[in-house]
Structures are given as C-alpha cells and as structure tokens.
Amino acid sequence: MIYRCILLFAVLAPASATGIQMLFPDQKQYNYVVKTNISTGVAHRNSYWTLEGRLVVLVDDNYYATVQFKLEDLKTSVYSYNTGFSSYHTPEAARELEEPWKIIYQENGFISAIQHLPHERVWVTNIKRAISVNFQLKKDAGSYTNEEPCLYESCVMVYSVQGNTIKKYNSYQKASMTSQTSWSSVPWSGDYGRGVPENIATSQRVYDLDEKGLNCLNMKGLFEYIVDGHVLTVTTESVEEELQKSNQMGYEELQHELSCEISKYMNCDVSYTLKRLLPGDLKDNIEDATILSLIRKLPFNIANHSQALLEDMETISKLGLDFPQEIRHAGILSFAIMVSHCVEAMKVKQDYFDSILVKYFRMYSDCPQYLDRLIWLQGLCSLGYTSESYIRTIYADKTRNRHERLWASLACGQDTRGYNVLETSLPILMDDNEHIQLRISALHAILSSGIRESDFLFLHSWISTSRPELQRFWYSTVKSLESNKFPKYRTISDYIPFVSKDVVNPDSSLWGTNNYIVSGDELSGWVQVMTVGNPAPTLAALSVSTGGRRAYQASVYIIAEGVQFDKVRKWKQSDLKVDNLLKILERLNVRNLKTSEEVHIDVVIKIQDKTVYATHINQTRFESWNGYDLTKSITEFLRFGSHINQQIAYYPIQIDVNVPSDLGTPIRLQSSVVTFTSLRGNLTSNPDSGLALDWVNDLHIRHQATITTALSTIAPLLQSEHEVRVQRSAVAHLPIKFNVTMEQYAKSIALTWLNPFAQRAGFAIHSWIQVHMDARQPDLYTVSSGITTDDDSGIFFDCERKTSGAEVVEKYIMSKFMSYDLFPTKHILNTISRFITSCGVIIPPNRLVGGEDEMVHVEFTLGDIVFQKVDKIEMEFDFMLKYYSINDPNKQIYLKIDSNTKIKSAGRNLFIKWFLYVNQPYSLDPKKKFWKLCYTQKDTSHAPSDQDITIHPSSYHGTSKILYQTSEEYNQCNPNETRPNESIETKLQLNYKGTPKNNRGTIERYVEVDILGENLHNFDLLHNLGYGVKTPVAQLLGSFDKNKINTTSVIKEKDGIASIRVNGGVEVEMYVGGLSWLLDSWTAMQLMRRFGLYRECRLQESTVQMLSGSVEQLQPLQCSESLVLADCSVSPRFVILRKQDGGIQLYDGDYPSKNATSVHSSKVTDYKSILEVGTKILSESTGVVMYKRLNENVILLPSSYMHSVCGECAGHTTYNNC
User: Fold this and answer.
1) What InterPro entries does UniProt report for this protein, alphabetically (predicted)?
2) For the whole prediction, is pTM greater than 0.70?
C-alpha cells in the first residue's frame, strides 16, 4: 500500500481543479496521510484543534466520472495555553465521518456533485465537501486564471506552473446565501448575504505532481478580521465548499439557533412577544410608550427574514382605532421596513410583495386626511426601489398635493441610475411653474445619480441663467465639494474642478437656500445640510453618517410654512382694528382678499432612507399650542418636586456573520454593543420661595457600555469551541448636585454648587483580549503584552506595563486610525485599545476628599433691554462667579469674577462697554490679587439720514480701548479715578476710520487703523493665550518688549482682493471674497435688506421697482388715489396710497398704542398725505418704513408680508377709486 502526504496549512479559502487524470492517472486505490490544524487567536496566542487520519481514494471508473473517498483511523486533539494538549473524540461522530462518499466529475474534470448518505448530519457533509474541492485541477503553461466550483458559489483561481509544481490561490469568491450569511440589528451599508469587508480571506494550494499522479498537496489558507488594530485570526488545515441545496434547510436551522443565541432580547421571539402586547385585553395594561418603542425598533431586531414572518406580523399595519394614532402610524412604517428587509434578503415571493405594494399605494390614494396619506406614502418610500413606478407616478403628477410630491422625491427609494433620474427629474427642474422646493429636490436627485460629464456641464450652463435660488444651491454645492468627498455625489466629484471657478454667489439675501457638505475621504463620516427658502428656509434636511464600512445614516426632513411672526405671537382678531383698512380696500375695488398662509409643518425622520417617524402639524394643531400651559406645567413640576429613578437599557447593537472554514466547519464572527444609562435622584423646590423659582438638584447620571467582538470556530469531533474576543468597556459617573434660582422680576438666574471638587465624578475604561476554549477541559486566559515593570506612577491599573498620562496622550495624538464604528459610545471605547493590549484607565485618578465645605455661585442677570423703532437698541447684562467657604462666617472668597456689559446702538452709532474684575486673594503673587480688563468701543457713522435705502456703505470712524491692570487693591474701570501703580497699567488703543468709495458702481474700501500701546509686556493674558513675543500678533503690533508702540495699518479692498500694509512696509494681498462687506459700516436696516428680511419698492415719476426687483412702467394717476402697496389679507395690517397731489399716505392696523409716526417732521401726523421731501415714516405695529425723497418714494416692507401683498409694488393689477 502506497502512502502519500497531504500537508494542509490554512484558514479559509476556496478551491478549483481540472484534469482528474493528472491527480490519479491509474485506476487503483491511493492512500494519503492527512494532517489538519485549525487555530483561533491573535499573534502568538491561540487555541487549536487537530485532525489526523488516512484518506483513501479509490479510482475504478474507466471514464473517471466517479471517484470514491474515505477517511480512516481518525485522531483528534486540542490545545490551549493553560491546559496544554489533550486527545479524545466522540466515537459516534468519528464513525459518521469515516463513512465513504463519492465525487461525480464533469468531463472537464471539475466536480459536478457529491454523493453521501441520505441522513448524514450537516457538519459531516460539509467536511467531506471541503476535502473534495481540493481534488480538481487545471494544468496549463505559465500563469492563468480559471473559475471553478468551491465552497462558495464559485471562485476565481489564479494558477502558476513551474515544472511539476502547480500553485493556485483564491482570487475572488462569489458567495451564496447559504455559504456566507450576515445579520445586523441596526441598518448598515452592506448587502444582505455578504460578509463584512473588514476581513481578509485567502488560501493557497501547492500540488506536487509526478508521473504517478499527486505526490503531495500543501495548502495554506488565512482568515483574519481586524478590529481597532487587533487582528483576530482563524487558521485551518482544510478546504471549504459551498453548501448545496440538499442540506440548506439544516444550515438555516443552524443559523436560526445561532441568531437566537446572540439575540436573546428580541430576535427570535419578537413575533410572539409583540402579539401578546397587541390584544386589547393586554394592551390596556401596558404603557403606550412601551408598545411604540417596540414597534419602531422591531424591523431592526429581526435576524431571520421570511414571508411567513411578514404574514404573521402584517397585523401591525392595520391596527384598529382603539390604538392611539401614533402607534397605528408606527405600525404602518415599521411593517414597510420589515418588507423591505425581507425583499433585500430575497425571502419574499413576488406576488405577496406586489400585494403589499398595491395596498400601500391604495391606502395612500384613498385616505382623506393629509397626515394619513403622508404615513402611507412614507411607508411606500421605505419599500425601496421596487416601488419606483408608484413613486414616479406621484412625483410627476402636477395635480397632486405639492408636499406629497416633494416627499416622493426626497430619499424615497427612487432608482439612482442616471438616465431614469434625468427622465423624471429634469422636466421638473426646468419647469418655471414648479415650486422651488420641488425643483431643488429634483436637482438633488440628479446630483445623487450617476450622470455623465456632458449632463453635468449642461446643468452648470443652464443653472447659471436660471432662478437665483437654484444658482445659490448650485454655488454652495460646488464650493462644498471643492474640499469634501461626498459619497452621495460620488460621480460629480470628478467634474467639480472644471466649474468651481465659474460659480458665483448670486445674492446674500438668498442665505436661506444652501447645500452644505462636510466630509473627509470615502470612508469618513459626513454631514449634509440642505435648506430651501427666501429669505428664511421653509424646507430643511439634515443627513448624518457615522462613516466607516458599516455606516449608520440618519436623516431629518422638516417643512415649515406659514409660521410667521404674527402667528407665533398669536394676535387675536379682536386685538386688530381692521375695519378702517377693509373699507379703504373696498373703496379701491380690492375684492379678492387673500387668506393668511396656512401653517404647514411636516417632520420626517429616516434611518438608512427608511422612514421611522413622520408627523404633520396643521393650522388647528399649531394654534392649540399654549406656551403658558407649558410653562405652568414645568413650574408646578418644579414646585412640588419629583423623585427620578429612570433606567434605560438600550437595545443591543449586534452583528453576526457566518462563513465556512477550509475544513467546512463554520467560522462565526460576532460583535455586540450593550449600553445602560441610569438617572437617579431628587428634584425638589421650596413652595414658599415667593416670586423666585428655587429648586434643588441631587441627581446622579451613570452610563455603562460594553463592546465585544469575537471570532470562533467549532470542532464537531471534539464538541469543542475555540474563540478569541476583544472586549472593551466604559463606565461614566456624573453627579449633578446644585441649586438653581430664577427671579423673574430681577431677570436673573443663579447656580449654586456645593462642594464641586468633592463630588465623585469620573470615567473608567478597560480593554482586554481573551482566548477561550470550551472543551472537556475548558480554558480562558487573557493575552498580555509580556512586559512587566514596577513603576506605579502611571494612571493605569490592571496592566502589566503601566503607562503615564503623558504617554497616553502622546500615543493617542500621534496615531492615525480609522474608525469602523456605529455610535459615539463605541468610538470612545475603541480609542483605548489603539495603544494598549489588555489594560484600563481611570480618569481622574483617586484623590483625597476635601474636608471643608465649599461653594461655587454663578449668577447671570439680564438688565433692561430697550427696542425702539427698528434702529435703536439698548441692553445690559451682568455675570458673577464666586468660590468661597460656607464655614467661614465672612464667606472667605477663594475666587470672584464680576463682569458687566452695556451695549447701545442708536441710529447708525454703536457704543460698547465691557468690564471684567477678578479677585484671587490666594494668588502666589501679591501684586496680582486683583486684576481688571476694561474694553470700550465707540463707533460713529457718517451716514446720511436716508442711508437705510442706499446700496453703498458709508464712511465711519471709531475708537476701541483695552486696559489691563493687576494690583494689590481693587480698582475700577473709571477713567476719572486716580489709581496707584499707574505705570503697570497696560493700554491698547485702536483708532480706525473707513472711507469707502463708489467708483462707477464698484466699491473700493479703504480702512486705516492706528494702534497705540503701552506696557504690553505686562499683559500676561496675551502670553497665556499664545500671543506672546515672536508671534504674528507681536509682529503686527511692533514689539511687546517696548514700553510704547505706535503702529499704522492700511487695508484696501476691491473686487474681493484685500491688501494690508503695516507702517508703510510691504503690501500683502489676500483673497477675501464675499467677506469684504465686513469692512463696511452698515445700518441695521441695510443688513436686514442684505439678508432678505426686508424688501424694497421704489416709485419714481414713470417707473416702479417692484418688491421682486423687476422694473415696470408706472401708470399716470387718473384718479384721486391709487393703491401702492397693502396687506390684502382678510385681516389687513397696512395700506399705502399715492395721491394726485404727489403725496403718499400710510394707514396701519392701529394696534393698541402703536400708530404710524413721523421720525423726521413733527408736522406730519397719521393718515395725512406726506408731501415734505426728506420725511421718514415708521409704522411700529407693522414694521413698514417709508421715505419721501425728491422724485422718489421708497417703501421698505418686512418679507413676512410677501404672501398677501397687492398693489403697484406687488404686481400688474391696478387698484384705484375711479
């Protein structure tokens, strides 16, 4: 009998072959010695099991169509670090594996099928198949590739031939649903049925052939999984093969059991648990919040998707009216997500899915209420791209509700292929009659698709001449993508450099329309903020992704229309005296009065583009909100106090991946995150505290999180399991023990904190790697670094090598790493294992508890705030912090900080005072027990009286002063006070003046700044802030070493290019772009006009510049009066008329004590015709401002009235009293 060797060293890989006659040229029996070794662990630390025996190959078919294999004389052993070697096996299992099996080959020499006993257990068949796939081979010359059957569906093998030695290794494997499966309790970016991408799986086989056939086979494979810098490894000496349908059910049953093992919270019994909650006799005994939470999280905690599960759970999508509306809506949305997940896992028959699709579309179409239609529509969106035809029907139908069409276009399962997107979205984008929200949504859909460069350049060219809102959205998109790689816009990122220099910001008044993106490389997290509105946003979308290869993505979409200032203040109709205005409008033949824009608020929250929450707020719900009731509830809650005992056990985040090893035994990868948060304590208040609100907090917040990642294999002959795991945990404790006092009439809030430095707050983290063997002699040990030291000065505990805090910081900062994590908790825990193996840290380290009662008192007081008209503001506020001992009858102060701020803006002038006083009695330097920082600024504008309605900035001048002094005694910031130690004062004064020029419509800015300083070397705050000697600040100011400095800087700007020259030196240029207006002196009204909060209308002799900006011919006045501009709503606020005598007349809604007044001429009274040139009229009740100029009348209108205005400033219709 001839014995030949097969030496197998591997870890996970496929196989391939052709030419069975090359391996077995003669029809006889071949015998081989087989040795296998499957190990699990990390570098130099593992646990393994072995299998040895004899492989008998019988070739007795003349056509080489069938070959029989048989294992004999099997021996097994296990090894672990502490228990060493032991040898045993289960006789029954060995007998099953020693049963012969046959391989049926195709004509080309590749395996067609494997014959085994009909009732053979799954693991036995898998091992036999794994061994079989090694015996197929293709011999050619040089290097070549071949696609062959393997343990996966198929594998691409790379061959290299040198004489009689053939090497082949696995280049790529196509996995099936049974050979490699994965499941996650949270959404992730990977497809169902595919392994996680953080692993490396490869195998190599070396065939040694001679004239007698196969002489020796050396196979080496590797499977590695990397987690936070640790490489978990499974090494096996065997082969792997894709499981066939004959044992698919058994493998699925195994998967189901594995899923139940790791998903004890909900996964396997979720249907039964939920069904128990839903019947009427039980749901009344369970809080609605519990049912709601369970339904919403249900789709993300199902491991085994099936149509039977959907049929069983379909009841949650048709709950009765005895359930609260929120629960019914949550059921509709969650069931749609469950259906989508089952479709992605290919576990649903097409006819059943079609019935669900039709059901959601019909319910959306037939429901009379908008909120119900919104819910069914979002469920339709969650069904995925398979609902594309229905979504496109809704999106493209102009007869449908505009908001429903918008929701059908935002993250709603549409096909992202370029042509289909262009076919649907391009007509909407280019239709001027479509709402701007729909047009920008269409543009976003196009950018998210795989459009070609020609389409992109066409869009760029077309948008440059389209509506300003589209130009603004395009501008912010291009500028964001210049420095950010955005996965959603991956295709167009390559085209951005071709157009980035051509885009311009159309107008600052369009600040409400944006597309801001912050991202890094392709695997980093990203944030996208989209807003649409003019001026204020009415549509906002925020999308966040955690990044990594299992990115967690969440999105929030909000539509808020009709929420205007008057609706927020909730003026009642009885408060308005509008009869006079209605009569004026009737006299001018204004018949069709506009109703106020209805409040329309939609909120949609999506996870991985699947809607988990949606709601709608209409006018009725909005008006039912009562701020007073809310305030009263909070007050009563605080007055009577409350005991809080809240524990939150979060749903575990779980990932389970199963792949075959080279021996056919399963390799299992598990990752789980378990978190727990508790809030305990008391919140009490004294009911007799008078007018003040005073409550005491004695709360404790604790947060605990544990992350475990494990890689394991099973030895069926030994009934043992071998596992390596990385576990990280963190515990945080935050005590909240302080008192809060709010005094309404004093407009102050104070915080008092007893013993702030004695409260035991802290953060502890720990990490370790363990190798575990579950066998007859189980073993568990922790992998250490192997380095020991007696140094106890570090802050680490439970470490063989203790590390100082400085080393930790250095290692953390100097290391570059990438996180593949899902949540911030996991990110925090992962940081520790980047520079330690098995270790922990406590922050802060243990310290002695102080024996003296100390107090920190912080108080903020808001003084008088005065708003007069639109251009006069006065405010004052104070801040105080005291740290003292409460045992001392004099309340000895350790530290006291006082701050006072006064701001006054009158007309076009600004005055600021800010004083900061610090008292530190225990300062090591007695001359620094007291210090003060005084800042004053006086800014004077040279603007004319009508500066508000000019488009150019005015000249200005001003002075800013900073005074800093430390002393042994308290000194105030009083310039008239005689102070000791005058010489140690530090002074810094900036005298500036700006004189912009208008050169043929182009603004040329010129700013001159004189900097005077004394004793800057005593200004130690600058040194502490990093602005000391040899810094750019010091170079700009001259030198801190000199007693006095005198520096002059000149700044010039034109067309976005600014230059600066210091003391007549070299001129340095820089690009400032759209920031150049910060060098100007603007009035408050000019800023509001700049940002679109006010709109302007100008009436001249024969033309009118309307609120939209267009210029039209102004018809001659044939009647005694004509309507210039009015609030033409059912409750009008103002009416503006022009008269035949050339005057202009303003009527307002006559709110109590709020009438239109003249701010220029005392001869002008309300409702009189304004004739005097230079007159300015302000209606304080409406905010409308009018200017009477030579041959021109200018009206400034708050943009909130734009939806209801009419008149010559608003459109072509003329209203008069003819």
Assistant:
1) Lipid_transp_b-sht_shell, Lipovitellin_superhlx_dom, Vitellinogen_b-sht_N, Vitellinogen_open_b-sht, Vitellogenin/Apolipophorin, Vitellogenin_N
2) no
